[in-house]
Design a protein that fits this description.
Layout: E1 2-5, E2 9-13, E3 20-25, E4 30-35, H1 36-57, H2 60-67
Antiparallel strand pairs: 1-2, 2-3, 3-4
Length: 69
């Protein structure tokens, strides 16, 4: 199991992000358990929304230079 120490929480997780995450709120030391898959899907949806917004705000020349490498 691995540990991430953020500003407001500590997270224990499997290196391959399988199973569950154990998250501790440092303020009151309350622990919750969340499926790692749920967190990964949440992060993916957030990043996807950001990327869509970025693409939608581009002009066509910038978009074409992005996709052509």
């Amino acid at each position: 199991m691995h540990t991430f120490k953020g500003k407001s929480c500590t997270i224990h997780y499997n290196g391959d992000m399988s199973g569950e995450l154990k998250i501790c709120n440092r303020k009151d030391n309350v622990w919750i358990t969340v499926k790692a898959d749920d967190i990964m899907r949440f992060v993916m949806e957030h990043i996807k929304s950001q990327k869509i917004a970025e693409i939608e705000s581009m002009n066509w020349k910038d978009f074409m230079s992005e996709i052509s490498g």
